[in-house]
Amino acid sequence: TGILALLDEQCIVPRSNDHKFTRYLYAKCDKHGRFGATSAQRVDYKFSIEHYAGPVEYSTDNWLEKNKDQLPASSVNLIRGANFDLLSRIQKFIRSEDRDGRGSVAT
Question: Over pLDDT 90: what percentage of the chain?
Fold first, then answer.
């Protein structure tokens, strides 16, 4: 499971927050060869990913809030009605706002 999939998962968990997500990330990714989090990074809710050019440090501040951005329902309806193959394939990944302004995953 990748980091973005774990982020999506935590976005739908009630009362989740960036610190809970980061601890969940540590638990799920700690054994991956490209994932790292030193003791100092863990105190600050950070982690590193080994990219081709070297390690890159990430902070999870505001990750959940940024990831919860929703498309307006009218935009989702437009995408659902499109005959373009790519749009048909990505529909299951699109989040939309419902009538109450709460987000939900469009399926």
Answer: 47
Q: What are 53's two structure tokens?
A: 């050019």
Burial class (CB in 10 A: 0-12, 13-18, 19+), 53: exposed
18-29 vs 3-11: helix crossing angle, rounded to 10: 140
Q: What predicted TM-score, i.e. pTM, was given to this entire model? A: 0.65
CA 105 to chain centre: 13
> Which residues are CB-contacts of 104 (< 8 A; sequence separation ≥ 6)?
95, 96, 98
Q: Which residue in 30, 103, 20, 23 sits closest to 69, CA to CA?
A: 103
Higher pLDDT, 98 or 66: 66
